């Protein structure tokens, strides 16, 4: 199956622009919810430059300086009020090296058996309490069931026998009672680390038998090849006016043939465009009618683009959008659909500076998107926020409050159900920090860091699956 024809508009983000308040745009009409997880987020836009489709080149000349950060809000050193999950959708889960913090009206800290690498808030058991799902470095997935009365029951999901070392849990997404777990180091015969996704349908708190999907599965375009890392990123949901569930799967290290339609034959040093990356969109992934489309950056012609490294989706009025990060070329594709129109690449968002890893993290909701560039400013980091509309104002760039080289502000981003933008800076002061902004005004609401006993705080933030 051929990839969609690409009608590309290049939008270059000017990180020297004065900050601009993003006008409020509330949801209307059908909604697409995806997370990667399901992400509600902000839409990144900038100054629109109309060009013929082409491979973007790095901006020549001296790199544009980042704007100076505003007077930093005080950093609040936090402690935990409890060690239970509770039942509050306003919580914002954030991970450190050994635990999960739930940042809400009350602050909880839940110890984990290994370091969290992915986080998701969902309602898998349909009890109207938020469940917290986390992938761990030991190759398991821990589900912390939301409870109104203070207990914290958990369930551990493990990969099938013989699939150890697959990085099971590296990515997570959910739609209603469906949970998808990425295992990018899983392999098919003759294709180690080609990657796979395991999908579970829950009945109450009991998961059904997992269904494994790889690039060798029926209805999936392409084929599994060594080192693709299919399942590195995920997002799932429904498109307005389209039946069935959609599952977007990133494979950032796929070697393309340069034509946008498949893989090169090699495993890193063979034929093909090395680590060009790809994103596969699966429609009805759990049925016999499964079908798919594959997307690549600039027809898969750019080595090291790592297209599909990060995924997020959201809506703007009747249109649905999927963001696909390619941090190797500092770019983010915007894939758009309206009603029954095919999904196509409608825009490409670019950073004016090379090497800032623009697209490492993306989030989107309510017609707005946020894109992290954690290597901007000698690793201080920055985040770009804007509207997806072609007539939007230039994007606003947020820089790290009281930033220092190595903070990596923007390494993680998410948006809460209460429309707060959350940005992680896991390298800050050797401990890590999280900054919360009002999504409408971009005013800083709070800056948080653990009082003691933590490192890498903010290195993983939770996506939010929609309530049923």
Can you give a write-up of this model?
The structure is a single chain. This protein is mostly beta strands and 468 residues long. The chain has a single domain (10-464), classed as Methylamine Dehydrogenase, Chain H. 1% of the residues lie in helices and 37% in strands. It has one helix and 35 strands. The protein has one helix at residues 376-379, and strands at residues 10-12, 34-35, 38-39, 47-49, 75-78, 92-95, 99-103, 107-111, 116-122, 131-136, 141-144, 154-157, 171-175, 178-183, 196-203, 206-207, 211-213, 233-237, 246-251, 278-283, 291-295, 310-316, 319-326, 331-338, 344-350, 361-365, 368-373, 382-387, 396-399, 412-415, 420-425, 433-438, 444-450, 460-461, 463-464. A six-stranded mixed sheet has the order 4-1-25-24-23-22, with no helix packed on it. β23 and β24 (331-338) form a beta hairpin.
Instruction: Tell me the CATH topology.
Output: Methylamine Dehydrogenase, Chain H
* Mean pLDDT across residues: 82
Distance N to C terminus: 33 Å
Q: Supply the CATH class.
A: Mainly Beta
- Strand fraction equals 35-45%
Biggest sheet strand order reads 4-1-25-24-23-22
Please count the beta strands (DSSP E, at least 2 residues each). 35
> How does CATH name the architecture?
7 Propeller
Radius of gyration: 20 Å
Q: Indicate the low-confidence ranges by residue numbers.
A: 1-8, 16-70, 263-270
Structural class: mainly beta
Helix % is under 10%
Main beta-sheet strand count, sense and barrel state: 6 strands, mixed
Protein name: Integrin-like protein
Pfam family, one: FG-GAP_2
Keywords: Glycoprotein, Membrane, Repeat, Signal, Transmembrane, Transmembrane helix
Organism: Planobispora rosea
């Amino acid at each position: 199956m051929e990839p969609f024809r690409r009608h590309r508009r290049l939008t270059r983000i000017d990180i020297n622009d004065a900050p601009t308040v993003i006008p409020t745009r509330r949801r209307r009409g059908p909604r697409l919810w995806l997370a990667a997880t399901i992400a509600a987020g902000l839409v990144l836009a900038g100054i629109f430059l109309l060009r013929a489709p082409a491979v973007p080149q790095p901006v020549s000349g001296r790199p544009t300086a980042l704007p100076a950060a505003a007077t930093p809000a005080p950093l609040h050193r936090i402690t935990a009020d409890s060690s239970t999950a509770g039942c509050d959708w306003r919580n914002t889960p954030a991970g450190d090296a050994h635990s999960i913090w739930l940042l809400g009206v009350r602050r909880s800290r839940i110890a984990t058996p290994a370091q969290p690498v992915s986080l998701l808030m969902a309602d898998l058991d349909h009890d109207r309490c938020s469940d917290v799902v986390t992938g761990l470095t030991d190759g398991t997935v821990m589900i912390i069931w939301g409870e109104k009365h203070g207990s914290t029951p958990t369930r551990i999901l493990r990969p099938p026998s013989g699939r150890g070392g697959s990085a099971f849990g590296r990515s997570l997404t959910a739609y209603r009672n469906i949970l998808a777990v990425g295992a990018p180091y899983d392999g098919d015969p003759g294709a180690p680390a080609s990657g796979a996704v395991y999908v579970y349908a829950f009945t109450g708190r009991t998961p059904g038998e997992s269904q494994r999907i790889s690039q060798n599965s029926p209805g999936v375009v392409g084929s599994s090849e060594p080192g693709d890392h299919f399942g590195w990123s995920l997002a799932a949901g429904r498109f307005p006016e389209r039946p069935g569930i959609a599952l977007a799967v990133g494979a950032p290290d796929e070697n393309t043939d340069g034509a946008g339609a498949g893989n090169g034959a090699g495993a890193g040093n063979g034929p093909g465009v090395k680590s060009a990356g790809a994103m596969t969109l699966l429609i009805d992934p759990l049925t016999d009618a499964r079908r798919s489309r594959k997307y690549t950056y600039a027809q898969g012609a750019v080595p090291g683009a790592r297209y599909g490294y990060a995924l997020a989706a959201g809506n703007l009025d009747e249109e649905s959008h999927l963001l696909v990060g390619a941090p190797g070329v500092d770019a983010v594709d915007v894939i758009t659909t309206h009603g029954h129109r095919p999904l196509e690449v409608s825009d490409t968002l670019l950073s004016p500076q090379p090497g800032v890893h623009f697209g490492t993290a993306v989030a989107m909701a309510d017609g707005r998107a946020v894109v992290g560039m954690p290597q901007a400013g000698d690793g201080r980091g920055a985040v770009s926020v804007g509207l997806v509309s072609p007539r939007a104002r230039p994007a606003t760039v947020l820089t790290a409050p009281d930033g220092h080289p190595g903070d990596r502000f923007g390494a993680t981003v998410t948006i809460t159900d209460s429309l707060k933008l959350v940005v992680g800076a896991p390298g800050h002061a050797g401990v890590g920090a999280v900054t919360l902004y009002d999504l409408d005004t971009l005013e800083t609401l709070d800056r948080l860091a653990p009082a003691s006993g933590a490192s890498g705080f903010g290195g993983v933030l939770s996506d939010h699956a929609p309530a049923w």
